[in-house]
Amino acid sequence: MSTVSRLPKPLRRLVAALPTEVNTTIRRLAVLSLIGQTVLVVTGGAVRLTASGLGCPTWPRCTGDSLVNTPEMGIHGFIEFGNRLLTFVLAAVAAAMLVYLWNLRKERRDLFLLALGLLASIPAQAVIGGITVLTQLNPWVVGLHFLVSMALVVLATLMVNRAYGRTGKFMNRVLSPVPGALSPVMRAVAVFSGIAVMLGVVVTGAGPHAGDADAPRNGLDWDLFSHIHAVPAYLVTAGTLVAVYTVVRKRITGPFRTATFLMLGVTILQAAIGFTQYYNGIPALLVGAHMLGAALLMAASTNAADLARYSPIEHGHGQHGQS
Questions:
Q1: In the 3-class helix/strand/coil scheme, how is the chain assigned residue by residue?
Q2: Neighbours of 79 (CB within 10 A)
Q3: Angle 248-266-22 (CA atoms, 0-180°, nearest 5)?
Q4: Which of 116, 118, 173, 220 is most buried, with most CB under 10 Å away?
Q5: 282 with 288: CB under 8 angstroms?
Q6: What is the pLDDT of residue 317?
Q7: What are phi and psi of 101, to 5 degrees?
Q8: Alpha-carbon distance 160 to 153, whole Å?
Q9: How far is CA 40 from the centre of its chain?
Q10: Cα separations in angstroms, 199 against 91, 220, 222, 303
Q11: Would you state the pLDDT for residue 88?
């Protein structure tokens, strides 16, 4: 007797109604997950930059007596609780994705595991957020909270690519040939993007935007680490320029060409925001824009590296193979 046949009749009907191939709903849920993870970065930035980090002074409740924020807590409580509430929305999206993929859990194990990873990480993210509050916004815990969000952006980007058949084992299109050297270059760009983001967390932990007036700082030299943070950013820019030059010179078309120009645009935007905030006293609005840019950078670099990996490599005599 199969596992499904042993289920109660209503559940058997539900399983029978679930899709047996990747459909529009699954693709939309993947996109919604990526958008939601990016919005979570923005709302987390709003919590810090409006000094609302302790808007809910305890965890898991917002106050000792209330699960939600109260009118007496004002705008800070509203902002902090709104950020907490978004994690439940993202959990619902990830759970819905798992349900819709149930009949495909073996055939599309790639999507199922990505959705499972997104769902499993959300409670972990909530716990880290709770520790952040209970430690009075310790900058290292706050940084870990942000880095987990970056990892979730990466997972969500991969899910979108797999759901739309852009990359992976179940590609539904033939990609334009990509020179073999570009795949390691784009992987390096993705790695250095991650390093730049991690060092950016250290810089933020040393800077003035702590999330609360009494929150501790990490005690490091903000100016020194700003310059260290710039080194991998320069390498990201160099790698991206190499990719764009190669794409134009070899007249590569298709998704990878779009991905490289998107990566170039995000890199230039991040650099412009970074330099502007550095030379203008680190205004909160630009710091928030830089945090959004970090999420976009991780998504763009992941997308480009993913596409380079699954694009055919140019070989001699015009033959193509899988990288």
A1: CCCHHHCCHHHHHHHHHCCCCCCHHHHHHHHHHHHHHHHHHHHHHHHHHCCCCCCCCCCCCCCCCCCCCCHHHHHHHHHHHHHHHHHHHHHHHHHHHHHHCHHHCCCCHHHHHHHHHHHHHHHHHHHHHHHHHHCCCCHHHHHHHHHHHHHHHHHHHHHHHHHCCCCCCCCCCCCCCECCCHHHHHHHHHHHHHHHHHHHHHHHHHCCCCCCCCCCCCCCCHHHHHHHHHHHHHHHHHHHHHHHHHHHHCCCCCHHHHHHHHHHHHHHHHHHHHHHHHCCCCCHHHHHHHHHHHHHHHHHHHHHHHHHHHCCEECHHHCEECC
A2: 22
A3: 85
A4: 118
A5: no
A6: 35
A7: -95, 5
A8: 11
A9: 9
A10: 28, 12, 11, 22
A11: 87
Label the pairing between strands 320-321 and 313-314: antiparallel
Residue pair 48/285 in contact (Cβ under 8 Å)? The answer is no
Quickly count: other Cβ atoms within 10 Å of residue 227's Cβ: 11
Residue type, 28: R
Q: What is the pLDDT of residue 322?
A: 38
CB-CB contact of 309 with 187 (8 Å): yes
Which pLDDT belongs to residue 149? 93
Quote the distance between the C-alpha of residue 212 and its chain's center.
Answer: 25
Of 72, 85, 74, 75, the closest CA to residue 44 belongs to 85
Alpha-carbon distances of 75 from 4, 55, 81, rounded to whole Å: 49, 8, 10
Question: What are the φ/ψ torsions at residue 210 (nearest 5 degrees)?
Answer: -90, -15
8-26 pLDDT, tens digit each: 767 667 777 888 899 999 9
Structure tokens at 54: 């302790």
